[in-house]
Task: inverse folding
C-alpha cells in the first residue's frame, strides 16, 4: 500500500509542477482559456483525445467489454470514425473561422458567425454548456471516488475530495495551458498503460483454446459481433447506440476549443494521425481488457455484474491486482486518475469560460477588459467544481446501483446533441441561420432529456431506445429542426 501512495504522490507532484510552469504563460484571458492560441500538435492531439475519452475509457469501456463481449468493438469503430471526420474535414475550417472571428469560446464563435445583434444565441449556448458540463464533471468525480475505493481501499467520499482537490489546484494555477500540458502527460500514461495491459494479461493467462472459445464456453452470445439478442431490431439499435457515441467528436466544445488553441492549420494535419492512433489502440485495448476479465473471472451461468461490479466497473481493479506487481498496480491507479482528470480539467475551464466570458463580460460587464477577469475566472472554476462535487456525492447516495458508463454518456450526449449539429451546419451550409441554430440547440438539449426519461420508458419502443441511447436520435432531430427553421427563417446575410 505504501508503494501505491508513493507513486500517487509522484504523479500529483508532476501535475502541480505542470500547473506552476504553465502559470508563467497566463497573462490574459485568452491565455487562461486557449493558451494564447499557440499550442503544438502533440499537445493538442493528446489533450483532445484524453479529454474526449475520460474515466469511462478505463472504468466504463473495460466494463462494457466484459458485459457485451465482441459487440463492444462497435464503440471503437464509431469513435474512430468520429475522430477521423472531425480532424480530416472539420478542424481546419473551424480553426480558420474561429481565428477570423477572434473567438476564444464556442459561444464567441457562434455569435460572430451568425452576426447576431442579440445575446440570445450566446445565452442559450452558454447555459447548455454549464448544465451538461457540470453533469459530465460530476460523473467524472463519481468515477474518481470509485477508483480510489476499488483500487486503493480508500472511502469513496475521501477519494472524491482528493481527486477534486488535485485537479482544482493545477487548473487554478495554470488554466488552459496547465490542462493541455497535463492532458499530454496523462494521455501518454493512458496510452502506454492501456496498450500494454491486455498483452501482459494474455501472456500471463492460461490461454487454453483462445479468446473466442473462452467466451463461447461462458456464453456463446458474447462472440456475436452483430449483437446478443434474438431480436434483429434490438441488435441493430444496440450496434447503433454503441457506434453513434462517436458523433460527439463532431463539434463538442471541450474538443473543439483544442482546435482553437492550436497554433496553425498545418499542425492539425500532423495531429490527426496522433489522434487516430491513440483512439484505435486505447479503445480496442479497453474492450479487450474487459473480454479477458470476463474469461478469467467468470464462468458459465454466473451473473457477470455479481463478480465484476455494476456494469463491470471493477474489471480494471481486479485484473491489475491479479496480474501486475504492486508497483505497476500503483502506476495504473495514476493512469485511471489521468483519464478522469484530463477530462475534468478541460470541462471545468469550458464551464468557467461560459460564465465568465459569455455571461459576465459580454452581457453584464462589457466595459471590463480581459485582463481584469483572470481572478474572476479562477473563482468561477472553483464554484463549478463545487457544484459538480455536490452532484457526484448526491448520485452516490441516491443511486448506489448506477452504471457509470451510461451516466457519463448522458453528459457527453447532452453536450454533443446541443452543439455538434450547430457546428456542422455552420461550417458546411451557408443557408444556416441564427434562428435555425437556436432551434437546433434547443431541440438537441430537450431531446436528450426526452429520450432519456420519457421515450425509453414507453411500452413497446422503450427497450429499443434504451439500447440506442439518446445521442443519435437527439443529434438527428437537432439537424432536421435546424434545417427546417433555416428554410423558414433564412439568414439575412450570407457569407
Result:
Amino acid at each position: 500500500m505504501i508503494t501505491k501512495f508513493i507513486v500517487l504522490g509522484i504523479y500529483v507532484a508532476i501535475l502541480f509542477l505542470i500547473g506552476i510552469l504553465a502559470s508563467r504563460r497566463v497573462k490574459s484571458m485568452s491565455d487562461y482559456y486557449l493558451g494564447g492560441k499557440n499550442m503544438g500538435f502533440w499537445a493538442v492531439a493528446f489533450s483532445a483525445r484524453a479529454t474526449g475519452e475520460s474515466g469511462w475509457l478505463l472504468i466504463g469501456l473495460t466494463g462494457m467489454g466484459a458485459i457485451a463481449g465482441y459487440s463492444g468493438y462497435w464503440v471503437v469503430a464509431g469513435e474512430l470514425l468520429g475522430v477521423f471526420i472531425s480532424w480530416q474535414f472539420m478542424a481546419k475550417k473551424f480553426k480558420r473561422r474561429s481565428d477570423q472571428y477572434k473567438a476564444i469560446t464556442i459561444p464567441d464563435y457562434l455569435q460572430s458567425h451568425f452576426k447576431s445583434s442579440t445575446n440570445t444565441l450566446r445565452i442559450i449556448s452558454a447555459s447548455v454548456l454549464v448544465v451538461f458540463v457540470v453533469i459530465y464533471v460530476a460523473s467524472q468525480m463519481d468515477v474518481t471516488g470509485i477508483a480510489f475505493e476499488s483500487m486503493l481501499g480508500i472511502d469513496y467520499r475521501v477519494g472524491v475530495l482528493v481527486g477534486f482537490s488535485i485537479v482544482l489546484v493545477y487548473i487554478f494555477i495554470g488554466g488552459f495551458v496547465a490542462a493541455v500540458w497535463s492532458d499530454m502527460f496523462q494521455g501518454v500514461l493512458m496510452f502506454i498503460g492501456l496498450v500494454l495491459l491486455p498483452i501482459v494479461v494474455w501472456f500471463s493467462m492460461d490461454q487454453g483454446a483462445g479468446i473466442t472459445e473462452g467466451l463461447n464456453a461462458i456464453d456463446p452470445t458474447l462472440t456475436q459481433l452483430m449483437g446478443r439478442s434474438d431480436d434483429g431490431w434490438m441488435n441493430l439499435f444496440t450496434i447503433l447506440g454503441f457506434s453513434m457515441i462517436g458523433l460527439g467528436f463532431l463539434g463538442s466544445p471541450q474538443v473543439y476549443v483544442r482546435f482553437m488553441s492550436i497554433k496553425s492549420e498545418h499542425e492539425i494535419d500532423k495531429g490527426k494521425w496522433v489522434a487516430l492512433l491513440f483512439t484505435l489502440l486505447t479503445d480496442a485495448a479497453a474492450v479487450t481488457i474487459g473480454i479477458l476479465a470476463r474469461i478469467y473471472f467468470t464462468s458459465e451461468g454466473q451473473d457477470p455484474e455479481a463478480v465484476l461490479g455494476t456494469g463491470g466497473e471493477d474489471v480494471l481493479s481486479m485484473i491489475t491486482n491479479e496480474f501486475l506487481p504492486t508497483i505497476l498496480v500503483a502506476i495504473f491507479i495514476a493512469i485511471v486518475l489521468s483519464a478522469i482528470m484530463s477530462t475534468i480539467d478541460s470541462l471545468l475551464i469550458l464551464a468557467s469560460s461560459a460564465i465568465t466570458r459569455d455571461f459576465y463580460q459580454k452581457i453584464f460587464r462589457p466595459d471590463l477588459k480581459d485582463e481584469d477577469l483572470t481572478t474572476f475566472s479562477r473563482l468561477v472554476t472553483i464554484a463549478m467544481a463545487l457544484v459538480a462535487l455536490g452532484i457526484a456525492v448526491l448520485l452516490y447516495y441516491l443511486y448506489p446501483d448506477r452504471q457509470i458508463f451510461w451516466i457519463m454518456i448522458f453528459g457527453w450526449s447532452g453536450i454533443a446533441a446541443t452543439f455538434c449539429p450547430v457546428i456542422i451546419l455552420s461550417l458546411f451550409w451557408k443557408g444556416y441561420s441564427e434562428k435555425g441554430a437556436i432551434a437546433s440547440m434547443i431541440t438537441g438539449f430537450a431531446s436528450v432529456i426526452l429520450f432519456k426519461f420519457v421515450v425509453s420508458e414507453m411500452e413497446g419502443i422503450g427497450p429499443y431506445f434504451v439500447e440506442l441511447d439518446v445521442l443519435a436520435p437527439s443529434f438527428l432531430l437537432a439537424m432536421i429542426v435546424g434545417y427546417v427553421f433555416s428554410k423558414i427563417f433564412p439568414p439575412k446575410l450570407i457569407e
Q: What stands out?
A: The radius of gyration is 22 Å. The chain has one domain: 2-488. The chain has a mean pLDDT of 85. The domain at 2-488 is CATH 1.20.1730.10 (Sodium/glucose cotransporter).
